[in-house]
């Protein structure tokens, strides 16, 4: 087996890949075709299906490993694609899910322990109760929080990604809180841990239990309400059940959730108007962007240190520590090409 990031132009593909997406589209002549996105833990590539669409749809649905035969090509206009020869069900024992599914670098047990350590540093009693409601060992919220993804694609888009992302943001907020005067560390850390709680309802899988760790998609309510509104409402309801929770404290935590995207055009109903909300937004944005570098490096082919153009960072990502070769004309191998679009 070769990983997707090792594919080279013209190589023959005969192996199991995971179906990321299946979409039926219309051709210019009025007929239909299928656009499949197939991949593994290092990346994904598209392929088009022009015949036997119903049979392929019954076989290649999101989250399902399939045996793919075809040729990997890099079209000068449409970019990387697999020219499909055949597609069939993956035989049991012919693949490893560890090769197909991405995941966090640290173990879940280590991250859980670090969350507990961080919770123990919170001094404000009402915030401790709130966090216990969410992160308590027997909490339904915690059961979902520890396995949920942080995104559908751009960063930590895998099982346990939400835990990894929010823990990283909270640890950074905790570390930097003492650097700037006037920041209420307990409020900032609490907001950091809770800022993406709405993703528990916004993201889901619509698959049978056997494939529920392989598919990330938005729920209907996620599309209709958005993760910020869902998160604010969930924490607001939890706070209302805590007797004597100070109104100003509830306001401070709620504002962090509502403003953490930083701008109205990015989905926040309000912009950050407190030190704590500003800090969480900045660290959250940093964590997401650095998470994109992690994703791009995993997708990078061996021997290359430039990624392709990435919309999040606005260019190609450079990884100097990976080394790299140069052509005789001085141009580095792996330098990002001009962005291309796929065939339709």
Notes on the protein architecture:
The protein has 344 residues and is an alpha+beta fold. It contains twelve helices and seven strands. The protein has helices spanning 53-59, 97-100, 108-119, 125-135, 140-145, 161-177, 185-194, 199-202, 220-225, 227-240, 247-259, 275-299, and strands at residues 12-26, 32-40, 43-49, 65-75, 79-89, 203-204, 217-218. It has a five-stranded mixed barrel with strand order 1-2-3-5-4. Strands 6-7 form a two-stranded antiparallel sheet. Strand 2 (32-40) and strand 3 (43-49) form a beta hairpin. Helix 3 runs parallel beside helix 6, helix 7 crosses helix 11 (247-259) and helix 10 runs antiparallel to helix 11 (247-259). The model is unreliable at 206-212 and 326-344 (pLDDT under 50).
| Shape assignment | elongated
Approximately what portion of the residues adopt beta-strand conformation?
Answer: 15-25%
Round the Cα radius of gyration to an integer and report it: 22 Å
Our measurement of the CA-to-CA distance between the termini, rounded to an integer number of angstroms, reads 29 Å
Largest sheet: 5 strands, mixed, barrel
* Helix residue percentage: 25-40%
Residue windows where pLDDT falls under 50 for at least 5 positions: 206-212, 326-344
Strand order of the largest sheet: 1-2-3-5-4
| SSE class | alpha+beta
Number of helices: 12
Mean residue pLDDT: 86
Oligomeric state of shown chains: single chain
């Amino acid at each position: 087996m070769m990983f997707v990031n090792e594919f080279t132009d013209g190589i023959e593909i005969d192996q199991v890949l995971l179906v990321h997406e299946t979409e039926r589209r219309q051709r210019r002549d009025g007929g239909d075709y299928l656009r499949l996105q197939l991949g593994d833990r290092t990346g994904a590539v598209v392929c088009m299906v022009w015949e036997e669409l119903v049979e392929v749809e019954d076989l290649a649905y999101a989250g399902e490993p399939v045996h793919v035969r075809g040729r990997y090509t890099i079209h000068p206009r449409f970019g990387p694609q697999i020219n499909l020869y055949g597609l069939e069900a993956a035989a049991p024992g012919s693949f490893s899910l560890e090769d197909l599914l991405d995941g966090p670098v640290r173990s879940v047990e280590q991250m859980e322990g670090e969350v507990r350590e961080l919770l123990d540093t919170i001094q404000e009693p009402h915030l401790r109760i709130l966090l216990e409601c969410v992160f308590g060992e027997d909490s339904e919220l915690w059961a979902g929080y520890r396995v949920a993804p942080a995104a559908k694609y751009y960063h930590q888009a895998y099982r346990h990604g939400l835990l990894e992302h929010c823990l990283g943001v909270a640890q950074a907020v905790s570390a930097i809180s003492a650097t700037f005067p006037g920041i209420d560390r307990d409020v900032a850390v609490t907001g950091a841990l809770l800022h993406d709680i709405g993703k528990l309802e916004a993201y889901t899988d619509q698959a049978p239990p056997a494939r529920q760790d392989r598919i990330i998609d938005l729920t209907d309510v996620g599309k209709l309400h958005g993760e910020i509104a869902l998160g604010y409402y969930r924490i607001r309801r939890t706070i209302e059940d805590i007797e004597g929770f100070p109104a100003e404290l509830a306001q401070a935590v709620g504002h962090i959730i509502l403003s953490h995207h930083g701008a109205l055009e990015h989905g926040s109903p309000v912009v950050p108007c407190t030190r704590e909300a500003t800090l969480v937004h900045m660290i959250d944005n940093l964590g997401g962007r650095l998470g994109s570098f992690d994703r791009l490096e995993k997708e990078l082919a061996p021997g290359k240190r430039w990624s392709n153009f990435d919309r999040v960072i606005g260019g190609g990502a450079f990884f100097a520590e990976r080394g790299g070769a140069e052509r005789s004309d001085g141009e580095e191998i792996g330098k990002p090409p001009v962005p291309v679009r796929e065939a339709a």
